[in-house]
């Protein structure tokens, strides 16, 4: 009945159905009529079409991929993409059928051919999307295997596995394993189409970035494209993918993320360890950058505009904060972001923006708003993560000075902005002052440019918070804190720190006189011109303009929430 409806223009769709299901008809003609039908039907009708004609659809997929000819790259890609598009409709519109195991081995065999490591990028990107859909459908019905987990982990070329294995070798062995296409008959090919291998280290790094960015983007997007009859199954998919990303990707490059990472409920902030400087092009750095970026984008998705936070990100945000394990993983990764090379400044700014919004309570962290964690405990953790930036081994890099200084200004501004929160717990004030003075003292004796450029802002922040904590926060400042401030200012090798102290004394003296005898002492005209402070916005813009390296060349993928405000 529904297949006999008239299309716009008076075309009888029943004829298109007949042509689509005719297994003796030319493959590309059948694809054309399938597209015509899908363009005309509602979602419910599309699902019914796929379920009623699942055999004919799979026959079409088989014929299209069977006919791929590796001797002609252009034609081979066209045939492959048509076959994969048809398979995609089947996976998305009949997930119950696919997930329950229907044609599982045959579909897996087709995907082995499509995800072959040496296929062209355009075909492999489609194949990765389809594998993710297939992987999720099977998982919902308990049909995934350890082999599928390993394939998911090895989809990306040059991803740094902790055991040192090569992902492309593992994937190639899988694609050529039993159950794959038989390569002996002349009309079958084990690959869709080959391309030249990549050997240059820089090209390998760039290729890993492209694939990892796309994989993370697809994880959010493809979950939303599966047409389930029950929305709870979509949430199951998101839980599954989040768990697999943590287990098979994040734990590979952060091996102690769970054994020595943050335990928010337990009050553990994560273990301290020395950071070994790494090269920007190191695959470990690239993988850490993109995984931290994706987790931060998911966590920030409720803080950006509706246009930028699509449904996939919001679903994964809900799943992320509903899991204690995933939340702890996120917080651990936010801390790891502060240890990245400064070529990764873009994602570091986004992390600072997210943590600052939670610390300043412009947006409450979900685990705080639901009562799982107190404001005091969460604030102590956020301060710990933010100020850990000042222990980075990359701060003395003169080529990245603008980046390091602009991030520092953002962090110190957040610290000073805490003065506006009158109900901040005393323990938070004490910890903030202690950590800030410790960082300032350590940096004030170092002779590199970063220490010089941040000496005045550090002194200004320490003194501002000290006065505010005592007068507004009600903190009884211990003598050891005053001794720490004295040692810091006395030991600083930069005159800018002393200048800030002198300004503070002038302001306090003027206030005391005004309070005591109601006289406002006018400052004498300054005879020495002070070096003007560069505005934070201008410094950040300059830093972002000068920042080079692969990490800054984002494609806008991985969920697309890059503009969360962290870039100023």
Automatic annotation (TrEMBL):
GO cellular component: cytoplasm; nucleus
Domain of life: Eukaryota
MF GO annotations: GTPase activator activity
Annotated region described as Disordered, given as residue ranges: 549-568
Gly residues bias spans: 556-568
PANTHER family: RHO GTPASE-ACTIVATING PROTEIN CG5521-RELATED, TUBERIN
UniProt protein name: Uncharacterized protein
Organism expressing this protein natively: Pristionchus mayeri
């Amino acid at each position: 009945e529904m297949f006999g409806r008239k299309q716009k223009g008076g075309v009888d769709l029943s004829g298109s159905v007949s042509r689509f299901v005719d297994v003796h008809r030319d493959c590309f003609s059948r694809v054309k009529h399938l597209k015509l039908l899908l363009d005309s039907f509602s979602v419910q009708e599309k699902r019914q079409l796929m379920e009623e004609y699942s055999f004919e659809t799979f026959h079409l997929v088989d014929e299209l991929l069977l006919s791929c000819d590796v001797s002609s790259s252009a034609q081979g890609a066209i045939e492959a993409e048509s076959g994969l598009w048809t398979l995609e409709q089947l996976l998305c519109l009949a997930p119950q059928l696919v997930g329950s195991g229907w044609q599982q081995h045959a579909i897996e065999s087709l995907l082995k051919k499509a995800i072959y490591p040496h296929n062209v990028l355009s075909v492999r990107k489609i194949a990765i999307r389809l594998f993710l859909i297939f992987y999720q459908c099977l998982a919902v019905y308990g049909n995934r295997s350890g082999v599928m987990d390993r394939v998911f982990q090895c989809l990306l070329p040059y991803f740094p596995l902790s055991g040192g294995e090569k992902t492309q070798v593992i994937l190639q062995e899988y694609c050529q394993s039993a159950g794959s296409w038989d390569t002996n008959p002349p009309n079958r090919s084990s690959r869709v189409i080959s391309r030249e291998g990549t050997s240059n280290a820089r090209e390998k790094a760039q290729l890993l970035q492209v694939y990892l960015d796309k994989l993370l983007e697809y994880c959010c997007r493809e979950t939303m494209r599966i047409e389930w009859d029950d929305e709870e199954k979509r949430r199951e998919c998101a839980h599954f993918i989040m768990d697999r990303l943590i287990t098979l990707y994040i734990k590979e490059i952060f091996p102690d993320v769970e054994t020595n990472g943050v335990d928010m409920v337990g009050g553990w902030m994560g273990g301290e360890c020395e950071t070994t400087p790494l090269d920007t092009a190191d695959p470990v750095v690239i993988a850490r950058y993109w995984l931290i970026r994706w987790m931060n984008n998911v966590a920030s998705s409720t803080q950006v505009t509706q246009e930028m936070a699509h449904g996939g990100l919001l679903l994964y945000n809900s799943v992320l904060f509903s899991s204690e394990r995933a939340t702890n993983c996120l917080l651990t990764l936010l801390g790891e972001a502060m240890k990245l090379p400064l070529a990764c400044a873009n994602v570091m700014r986004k992390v600072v923006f997210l943590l600052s919004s939670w610390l300043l309570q412009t947006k409450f962290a979900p685990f705080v708003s639901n009562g799982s964690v107190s404001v005091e405990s969460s604030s102590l953790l956020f301060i710990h993560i933010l100020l850990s930036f000042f222990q980075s081994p990359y701060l003395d890099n003169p080529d990245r000075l603008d980046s390091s200084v602009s991030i520092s200004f953002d962090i110190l501004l957040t610290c000073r902005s805490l003065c506006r929160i009158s109900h901040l717990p005393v323990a938070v004030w004490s910890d903030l002052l202690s950590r800030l003075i410790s960082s300032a003292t350590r940096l004030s004796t170092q002779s590199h440019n970063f220490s010089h450029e941040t000496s005045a802002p550090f002194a200004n922040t320490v003194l501002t918070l000290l006065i505010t904590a005592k007068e507004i926060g009600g903190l009884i400042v211990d003598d050891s804190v005053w001794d720490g401030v004295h040692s810091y200012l006395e030991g600083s090798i930069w005159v800018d720190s002393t200048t800030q102290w002198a300004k503070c004394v002038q302001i306090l003296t003027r206030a005391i006189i005004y309070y005591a005898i109601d006289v406002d002492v006018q400052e004498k005209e300054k005879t020495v011109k002070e070096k003007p402070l560069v505005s934070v916005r201008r410094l950040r813009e300059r830093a972002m303009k000068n920042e080079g390296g692969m990490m800054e060349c984002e494609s806008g993928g991985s969920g697309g929430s890059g503009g969360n405000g962290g870039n100023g």
